[in-house]
Design goal:
Organism: Actinacidiphila epipremni
InterPro entries: Anit_sigma_mycothiol_RsrA (IPR024020), Znf_put (IPR027383)
Number of helices: 6
Strand content: under 5%
Protein name: Mycothiol system anti-sigma-R factor
Helix content: over 70%
Radius of gyration: 21 Å
Pfam families: zf-HC2 (PF13490)
Distance between the termini: 35 Å
Number of strands: 0
Structural class: mainly alpha
Shape: flat
């Protein structure tokens, strides 16, 4: 999406990183760039306002729901498995280029073979 006007920060960059901005996960410098863009660009400001309203609605309606313990455990185990695979692939790639592709193929086939929960 683009409003058709030239901006210091392109509309596509703003929209690609909108949730980072909404979640305060950006540097102060980036936040300043985004605020300036919203002041100049009405379509992006509207999109920001819509996404902000959706986040508030979801928080209000679902914010007090507890995450089931077994779900939290499964997600954390999956994150650790992925991190371990990435660490192994990184160390293998620094040791040998052919080992890296072998590890990546193995990780991909393992991942594909796992059933969705």
């Amino acid at each position: 999406m683009s409003c058709g006007n030239a901006h210091e920060t392109d509309c596509s960059e703003v929209l690609d990183h909108l949730y980072e901005y909404l979640d305060n996960e950006m540097s102060d410098e980036s936040c300043t760039k985004f605020r300036q863009h919203f002041e100049e660009c009405h379509p992006c400001l509207e999109k920001y306002g819509l996404e902000q309203a959706v986040k508030k609605l979801v928080k209000r309606c679902c914010g007090s729901d507890e995450v089931p313990t077994d779900l939290r455990s499964k997600v954390m185990m999956r994150i650790e498995t992925i991190r371990a695979g990435e660490a192994a692939a990184a160390s293998a790639s620094s040791a040998s280029p052919s080992a890296s592709s072998s590890s990546a193929s193995s990780a991909a086939s393992t991942s594909a073979a796992e059933p969705a929960s």
